[in-house]
Design a protein that fits this description.
The protein is an alpha+beta fold. It is built from one helix and eight strands, in the order αββββββββ. The strands form two sheets. The chain has a five-stranded antiparallel sheet, with no helix packed on it. The longest helix has 27 residues. The radius of gyration is 24 Å and the shape is elongated.
C-alpha cells in the first residue's frame, strides 16, 4: 500500500511539473498583437474592413507603432484592394505626436489607385487614395493617438 501511494505521489508530481512547465513555456511566448475590426459601408455594396494591429506591443513605453489594414471588397465580397497604414506615435500622458507614417497599396481585380497621399501631422497618421476601375471609390485610412497612447 505504501508503494502504491509513493508511486501515485511520484506520478502526480511528474504530471504537475509537466503541466507547470508547459504553462510556463507558453507564457514566455510573445503576446499576440492586439486587434480590432470594423466594417464600413462605402455605398453601392462596396465595403472596407478595417483591422487595427499593434506592432511589437510593450507594456511600458512612450512610443507605439500601429498598423491599420483596410480590406476593400466589391459587391460580391471579392477583395479589390488592401491598404496598410503604419503609424508611429510618441505620447507623454499630456500630449501625443505622430513621428512616422508609411503606407502600402495592393490592388486586385483590375482596380488601380490615384491621388495617393500619406501624411503624419499632430497626433494623426493618414493615407488616402481614389480607387478606380469602371467608376471610383475614395478610401481614407486614419490612425489617431490619444495623450495616453490609445490608438484608434
Amino acid at each position: 500500500m505504501k508503494k502504491l501511494i509513493a508511486i501515485l505521489t511520484t506520478l502526480a508530481l511528474i504530471l504537475n511539473i509537466t503541466i507547470i512547465s508547459g504553462t510556463s513555456a507558453s507564457a514566455a511566448e510573445p503576446c499576440a498583437p492586439c486587434k480590432d475590426a470594423e466594417i464600413v459601408d462605402l455605398g453601392d455594396g462596396y465595403t472596407v474592413e478595417y483591422e487595427l494591429t499593434e506592432v511589437n506591443p510593450q507594456v511600458r513605453a512612450s512610443t507605439k507603432t500601429v498598423e491599420k489594414t483596410a480590406t476593400c471588397k466589391n459587391v460580391d465580397g471579392v477583395v479589390i484592394a488592401i491598404i496598410k497604414l503604419t503609424g508611429t506615435f510618441s505620447y507623454t500622458g499630456s500630449s501625443a505626436t505622430c513621428t512616422k507614417a508609411s503606407s502600402s497599396y495592393s490592388m486586385y481585380q483590375g482596380w488601380t489607385y490615384s491621388n495617393r497621399s500619406t501624411t503624419c501631422s499632430g497626433n494623426t497618421a493618414k493615407t488616402s487614395a481614389r480607387l478606380s476601375k469602371d467608376f471610383y471609390v475614395d478610401v481614407n485610412v486614419t490612425l489617431t493617438c490619444s495623450n495616453t497612447g490609445v490608438v484608434s
